[in-house]
């Protein structure tokens, strides 16, 4: 098993590593040499063999091809594949079930879900999980230096294929993949896309740390930032939800934080 | 309601503030001016009126007396009071219940619990919660510059009344109070006390952030550090627990972290 990562959060690498060990399968993970140490350490701790590459996609793909040729491993891409979309979408099913359980007998479930959008695998999976339920699914992205490619593509009707952003939400720097795009845009299973500023991400992140006591990475705080601070989102909800309001599900995904640099975000 | 805080974590201030608001009671919290901003903000957000004092106990007590005289409020001390001990001890009951629930029908419950020891209110409460159950309760403290007053007192037979430590586990810098001491030492409801170094606390803290994804303050990581790194504790468990080992409960208490200084611990 090998992955040519376009997986800036490292969630995919860690999940693959653990899943492979659990099933007694050998995993090879190709990672850029410049990857953050905690991601390397966690991926290795979960049992995978890590093979380093240069940081460009060309270099990564070359190393990955060699690993596959040498070992017979099968490529497991991080988001642009139907199986990955469906697997990530199971979080949407779990979220819906857990909310119904919390609400008890009189519960009507969620009205909407906001999920982060990087490569779009998870967002499109969550959208599929809500298909036919009446639950609306929205995507959320950082605005900074063009990381809101999904939103720009969604409203212009043309998928944006290249992103080069240094947003602090480093898990969401990737462009939306072709398979997710088909679900998000062409099938319109995502009802809207919203973006937030770096300061809004930091404010939401601080709230999650200080009040919810959860370790999340900046990318994880983007959906909450949309719900709290995006005025377009607020207007839309006020219009659509009426006086009753909505029960809104917020997806937090990814806690790969480099502790020594975390503090710098809050200086 | 007023508290003259010897409450370096700010847990007591925040809990009182929230409890008072929930019960529609006015709360006045006396805090040193030099308190960390997140503690002040959280305490205020939960609804209390904050009154600042100087940082010495004499200054705090003077302001507290004036608040009580002016308002008729009742003092709620942070640990050295039977009601507080019993209230904090309810976490021991919850922990025992939750473990039994997790273990299912064949479960035998916990064998032991390790709790942090600052003023000793929570440790003595947890010890009371386990009285007569066969569950052993252990205290844990930072070793640095004498913060292990509880351990030194426990093994010398004499309560240590003054502590002046700058351990990173700032919630555990207080000496053990008289009421907790009676439970911990005189009634011997605590079976042993252990200490850990600053580096051991940091290593446990890093593990909690990186793998458990929980925001805790350094004080919270002290019991886990004892379980992972204290050789005396390890020897004792190996001797007492035999081949079967123990199911050990670890208490995490307090997540009042100043995010801008957190990163400095991990440089």
Folded structure, characterized:
- 2 copies of one chain form a homodimer.
- The first copy, chain A, folds into 2 domains: 2-71, Rossmann fold, CATH 3.40.50; 82-266, Rossmann fold (3-Layer(aba) Sandwich), CATH 3.40.50.
- Helices cover 46% and strands 12% of the residues of chain A.
- The first copy, chain A, is built from 11 helices and 7 strands.
- In chain A, helix 1 (11-22) links the parallel strand 1 and strand 2 (28-32).
- The longest helix of chain A has 22 residues, at 82-103.
- The mean pLDDT of chain A is 92.
- The A-B interface holds A 38, 42, 206, 209-216, 255, 257, 259-267 and B 38, 41-42, 206, 209-216, 255, 257, 259-267.
Sheet having the most strands of chain A: 4 strands, parallel
Shape of chain A: globular
Radius of gyration of chain A, rounded? 18 Å
CATH topology of the largest domain in chain A: Rossmann fold
Indicate the percent of residues in helices of chain A: 40-55%
Give the largest interface: A-B, 22 and 23 residues
Secondary structure tally, helices of chain A: 11
Strand sequence of the main sheet of chain A, in spatial order? 6-5-4-7
CATH architecture of the largest domain in chain A: 3-Layer(aba) Sandwich
Oligomer: homodimer
Total count of domains of chain A: 2
Parts with pLDDT < 50 across at least 5 consecutive residues of chain A: none
Residue share in β-strands of chain A: 5-15%
CATH uppermost class of the largest domain in chain A: Alpha Beta
Main structural class of chain A: alpha/beta
| Total strand segments of chain A | 7
Family (chains A, B): Belongs to the serine/threonine dehydratase family.
GO molecular function, one term (chains A, B): threonine racemase activity
Protein name (chains A, B): Tryptophan synthase beta subunit-like PLP-dependent enzyme
Domain Tryptophan synthase beta chain-like PALP (chains A, B): 9-228
């Amino acid at each position: 098993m090998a992955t040519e990562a376009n997986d800036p959060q490292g969630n995919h690498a860690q999940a693959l590593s653990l899943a492979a060990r659990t099933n007694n399968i050998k995993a090879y993970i190709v990672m850029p040499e410049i990857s953050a140490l905690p991601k390397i350490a966690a991926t290795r701790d979960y049992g995978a063999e890590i093979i380093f590459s240069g940081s460009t996609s060309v270099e990564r793909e070359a190393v990955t091809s060699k690993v596959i040729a040498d070992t017979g491993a099968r490529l497991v891409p991080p988001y642009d594949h139907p199986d990955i979309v469906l697997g990530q979408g199971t979080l949407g099913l779990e979220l819906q079930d857990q909310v119904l359980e919390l609400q008890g007998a009189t519960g009507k479930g969620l009205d909407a879900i906001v999920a982060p959008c990087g490569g779009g695998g998870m967002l499109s999976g969550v959208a599929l999980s809500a298909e036919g339920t009446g639950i609306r699914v929205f995507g959320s992205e950082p605005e900074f230096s063009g990381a809101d490619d999904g939103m720009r593509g969604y409203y212009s009707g043309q998928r944006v294929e290249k992103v080069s952003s240094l947003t602090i939400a480093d898990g969401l720097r990737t462009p939306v993949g072709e398979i997710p795009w088909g679900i998000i845009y062409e099938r319109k299973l995502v009802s809207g896309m919203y973006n937030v500023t770096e300061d809004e991400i930091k404010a939401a992140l601080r709230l999650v740390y200080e009040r919810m006591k959860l370790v999340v990475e900046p990318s994880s705080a983007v959906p909450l930032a949309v719900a709290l601070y995006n005025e377009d989102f607020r207007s839309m909800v006020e219009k659509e939800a009426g006086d009753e309001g909505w029960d809104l599900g917020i997806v937090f995904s990814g806690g790969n934080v480099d502790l020594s640099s975390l503090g710098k975000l809050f200086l």
